[in-house]
Design a protein that fits this description.
Elements lengths: L9 H7 L3 E6 L4 E4 L1 H7 L3 H4 L26 H4 L1 E10 L5 E12 L5 E10 L1 H20 L10 H14 L5 E4 L6 H10 L8 E5 L5 H9 E2 L11 E2 L1 H4 L4 E5 L6 H13 L1 E3 L6 E3 L3 E6 L3 H6 L5 H7 L2 E4 L10 H15 L6 E2 L1 H9 L5 H15 L4 E2 L6 H16 L7 H14 L4 H8 L3 H11 L3 H5 L1
Parallel strand pairs: 6-13, 6-14, 7-10, 10-13, 15-16
Antiparallel strand pairs: 1-2, 1-5, 3-4, 4-5, 8-9, 11-12
Helix pairs in contact: 6-7, 10-12, 13-15, 16-19, 17-18, 18-19
Length: 462
């Protein structure tokens, strides 16, 4: 049987392969690209064959040609590249993330005649990685991906708005005080919306300087500024087809607001250092704890950007306007901390729960969670009492009880109140917590009444 000379059919074989293949001559010109390569970069083979490989804008390539070194690039010196992550520039100007492998082709005499490069498309892998990272962060921070807790009328109204907003592609502006759960609402909007299978990209606008935020949002081209050694996709480009969450939108400088307006209005952006316009299909979810109307009046926020973002507003009420949700929130946090600290017996005493429900919580849900996490770590018995809370809150709650005691004037029922107190203490063996439970009041109320009537445990038991 006559041996088959496979080399005669290489071109046809390579065209059928799933992996993208590119062959570059020693002069740096492209001599072959298969169909998968055409699909990857958007150019046809005819368009790029005979052109220098720099047409693909690979950010991992380092041109080494000089008067004393007759080599097109590092590959022709090193001989191979293995598992190199790089970004190629497609015909439409967008970036595509790839994994590159390359080696030299030599003739029968051992002379290098070309280099063959293969590229694996990492786009879907990058999307999955971003999704996994986002889910992991949400689980670590909140214990549940969309863990918005609330049964109050105010929160039920918010839930209805989320359901309606999720069905649309309208831009959304979430407002509310710090700590009310704006990021959780943004996550819920994405997870219940039409774009839930696509990326959900978050950025805290207050955490980045004006010089950095444009590169983060819109990306940059290699060499755009000092330190820009590689092409970089911006968050809007990474979120193509999905949602972008701009937290603390009120912190963005007015110069960046103008560029952001173009993306929100026309879905077009320009990378830093590149003047080519790119189309991105994203929905913008923005959030702020600032009064944007006031910022507009002061010239700190563009009104046209505000109107584009505020298509569907969602306002989150502060915790002191939905006090009936405090016990539910507290129990949900305790359930989380039971698992986190491996403390199965962890619970909140009724007296502490009553105090939590009375406090005004200026830091909202975030403050409540912080206080209970501290108490969960400190509590040895598993029952969170007043002395387990941070010192600041012990003092605040003591003052709250003193004010309550001072606001109750003496009257005809004073004697009866004293008798009930003494009886409860006698039946509880002088234990103030058990006496409070019998009376249906907080332990601090018992303490205040004992002080008011000059009662001590020794006198009761004596």
């Amino acid at each position: 049987m006559q041996a088959l000379d496979v080399s005669l059919y290489f071109s046809e074989i390579a065209k059928q392969l799933h992996e993208a293949i590119l062959i570059v001559g020693t002069d740096g010109k492209i001599v072959f690209a298969n169909r998968s390569m055409e699909s990857l970069i958007g150019f046809s083979a005819r368009e790029i064959e005979g052109s220098p490989c720099t047409v693909l804008g690979c950010d991992a390539c380092h041109i080494l040609r000089s008067e004393t070194q007759d080599a097109w690039c590092a590959l022709f010196i090193k001989g191979r590249v293995r598992g190199k992550r790089c970004m190629l520039t497609r015909k439409d100007g967008t970036f595509v993330s790839t994994m590159k492998n390359a080696s030299l082709i030599r003739n029968a005499k051992g002379k290098t005649v070309a280099a063959v490069e293969t590229f694996g498309d990492l786009t879907e892998s990058d999307i999955k990685d971003a999704k996994i990272l986002e889910l992991t962060r949400a689980l670590q921070e909140q214990g549940a991906f969309c863990g918005i807790v609330g049964e109050s009328r105010a929160m039920k109204d918010v839930f209805q708005l989320i359901e309606k907003a999720a069905r649309s592609d309208a831009n959304i502006l979430i407002t509310g005080e710090s700590g009310t759960g704006k990021e959780l609402v943004a996550s819920a909007l994405h997870e219940t919306g039409k774009r839930k299978s696509r990326p959900f990209i978050k950025i805290n606008c207050s955490a980045l300087s004006e010089s950095l935020i444009e590169s983060e949002l819109f990306g940059h081209a290699k060499g755009a500024f000092t330190g820009a050694y590689q092409h970089r996709k911006g968050l809007f480009e990474m979120a193509d087809g999905g949602d972008v969450f701009l937290d603390e939108i009120g912190e963005i400088a007015t110069g960046t607001q103008a560029k952001l307006l173009r993306v929100v209005e026309n879905k077009q952006l320009e990378r830093v250092g590149d003047h080519k316009s790119l189309y991105v299909d994203v929905r913008v979810i923005a959030a702020t704890n600032r009064n944007l109307d006031l910022q507009i009046a002061e010239g700190l926020f563009r009104p046209d950007l505000y109107y584009r973002l505020n298509v569907f507003p969602i306002h989150l009420p502060p915790l002191n306007e939905r006090r009936e949700d405090i016990p539910l929130l507290a129990y949900s946090f305790i359930e989380e901390f039971r698992k986190k600290f491996n403390h199965d017996r962890l619970q909140i005493s009724p007296a502490v729960m009553a105090l939590l429900a009375q406090y005004h919580w200026p830091g909202n849900v975030r403050e409540l969670r912080s206080v209970l996490e501290y108490a969960s770590i400190l509590s040895d018995s598993g029952m969170i009492e007043l002395h387990d809370l941070p010192n600041r809150y012990q003092e605040l709650f003591m003052k709250m009880n003193e004010k309550e005691a001072d606001s109750n004037p003496a009257g005809d029922g004073e004697c009866e109140e004293k008798i009930r107190l003494v009886n409860a203490l006698e039946q509880s063996g002088g234990n103030q917590s058990r006496a409070a439970a019998r009376l249906g009041v907080h332990r601090m109320t018992v303490w205040n009444r004992m002080r008011k009537y000059g009662i001590t445990s020794k006198r009761v038991l004596g």
